[in-house]
Amino acid sequence: MRHSESARAPNPTGSGLVLTVLASGQFLMTLDSSVMNVSMASVADDLGTPITGIQTAITLYTLVMASMMITGGRIGAMLGRRRAFRLGLIVYGIGSFTTAVAPNLAVLLLGWSFFEGLGAVLIMPAIVALVSANIVPERRTAAYGLIAAAGAAAVAVGPLIGGAVTTYASWRYVFLGEVVVVIAILLTLRRIADAPPVPGHLDIPGAALSALGLGLAVTGVLRSSEWGWIAPRPDGPRLLGLSPVIWLILAGIVVLYGFLRWQLYLVRTGGLPLVDPGLRSNRQLRGGLGMFFAQFLIQGAVFFTVPLFLSVLLGLSALETGLRILPLSAALVLTAIGIPKLAPRAGPRRVVRLGLLSMIVGILLLTAGMDPSANAGVVTVPMLFLGLGLGALSSQLGAVTLAALPDSRSDEVGGLQNTATSLGTCLGTALIGSVLLAALNSSDSPLLALRVSFAVTALFALSALFGTERIPRAIGPPSADSG
Predict the structure, then answer these.
(1) How far is 325 from 317, CA to CA, in rounded Å?
(2) Cβ-count burial of 154 within 10 angstroms (0-12 exposed, 13-18 middle, 19+ buried)?
(3) If DSSP codes are grouped into helix, strand and coil, which group holds residue 200?
């Protein structure tokens, strides 16, 4: 499949405003889940619903994003990047306002899980494309680092924001605040350069197959801690003697295989596929997407276990837990921005490897420092190492994936990239949750169970080192027909 290269001349003038706007959008997209995680009890009480209802809302929000992100990227290419960004913001703002005034769970599901999820699948791929449309090539590594840092920082400060607002006011003000931010971003969109829409049509069968396949697989992963991966939980459902999780994941894989065959058929018959199957042979793209998946798998595991240690074992409040995670956020942002600025010629492969090693050191320090007599200060140094590692990866991976293909295909890359991050977060949280539950079942010590969980997280990071061979030593411009 060939894509004509759109003529565009990114202008560095006003790039600070552009990056602020796009980073704010990325921050918003990631903030919701982390805020909701620490506010579940208050939201449930306010809406008169059990805590499982709020967990369902979180699950559906994740499901909508993970299953529709590829389609959102394609729609963004057809509409034009800025128009897709604007439309996504409007839908997201409607969802935030609906959530803020929700009188019951049904309205919360409509506003947060559905509208905000649909808004996100238009916004996130468009952000990736708009960076390449507005930032000159030599500054893009730093720009992608800032965007990634904004998203990761939202995960870190979300508990702090959610804990403070929920404690001293109401969780509803978080979503009203999001509406204000959305309006502010919409007012600045004229300053952001656009690129012409990519002609074509939406592959509706492909969109349906990708959404169904990803949706089935993600649903299985999200339900794994509740139903069991293969052997069913004693009080959980079963299908043919096994947990429904394994059947959902297998069904998802079968549907995704059908999606791949359909894309190959379209290529053979001259149609326009949703995703070019030829991308499988692009080593740099595969390496970047694989490392994105690994980063967010590790990040999901860390942000699941560390708050548990602080809140459950040490008894910290949501606000205090958020404050203890702040060193990670600060180190992440400084590293993601600082590496491209201070070491612009640093090789991506070397930076990514050093980042993974820093994360492994941080996790091991956490594991070693966990003790019945430990205080909350034991997490400060590990948080710094984890932040440095995550920031190092964030500073490189966006540029690696985008440089693998021409700028005209940035929406396609953005959809794949955000799908990889969503799947990584889901799987990291689910896997480490299952490990923690299994360790608790075999031991009466929550401390031992958490140590096992941290050790498994370190293994995740160690295994990711073997995937760095696909990360290039240096980033060069792609050929016009890359992929």
Answers:
(1) 12
(2) buried
(3) coil
Pair 269, 432: CB distance under 8 Å: no
Tell me which H or E stretch contains 407.
Answer: none
C-alpha 438/C-alpha 446 separation (Å) is 11
Structure tokens, 306:
């560390």
Task: Output phi, psi for 175, to 5 deg.
Answer: -75, -35
Q: For 239, phi and psi rounded to 5 degrees? A: -135, 115
* 483 residues of the chain, pLDDT tens digit each: 444 433 444 554 456 778 888 888 888 887 877 777 667 777 888 888 877 777 778 778 888 888 888 888 888 888 888 888 999 999 999 999 999 999 999 999 999 889 999 999 899 888 888 887 788 777 777 788 788 778 777 876 777 787 788 778 888 888 998 899 999 999 888 888 777 777 778 889 998 999 899 889 888 887 887 788 888 888 778 888 888 999 999 999 999 999 999 999 998 988 888 888 888 888 888 888 999 999 888 888 888 788 777 777 777 776 777 788 888 888 888 888 888 888 878 888 999 999 999 999 999 998 887 776 767 778 889 999 999 999 899 888 888 888 888 777 777 788 888 888 888 888 888 888 788 777 777 666 777 888 888 888 888 889 988 888 888 887 765 544 444
Secondary structure element (H or E) that encloses residue 483, with its range: none
Q: Which residues contact 250 (CB under 8 A, 6 or more apart)?
A: none
- Note whether 77 and 194 are within 8 A (CB): no
Distances (CA, A) of 91 to 96, 115, 358: 9, 6, 39
CB half-sphere exposure, 163, CA atoms < 13 A: 19
User: Are the C-beta atoms of residues 217 and 66 closer than 8 Å to each other?
Assistant: no
List the structure tokens of 8.
């565009």
Contact 148, 307 (CB under 8 A): no
| Chain centroid, CA 93 distance in Å | 20
* Helix segments in 101-136, DSSP class H: 105-108, 117-134
Give the C-alpha separation, 58 to 234, whole Å: 24
Q: Quick one: 45 exposed, middle or buried, by C-beta within 10 A (0-12, 13-18, 19+)?
A: exposed
Residues 80, 103: Cα–Cα separation, whole Å? 36
Q: How many CB atoms lie within 10 A of CB 41?
A: 12
Does an H or E element contain 37, and which? helix 15-47
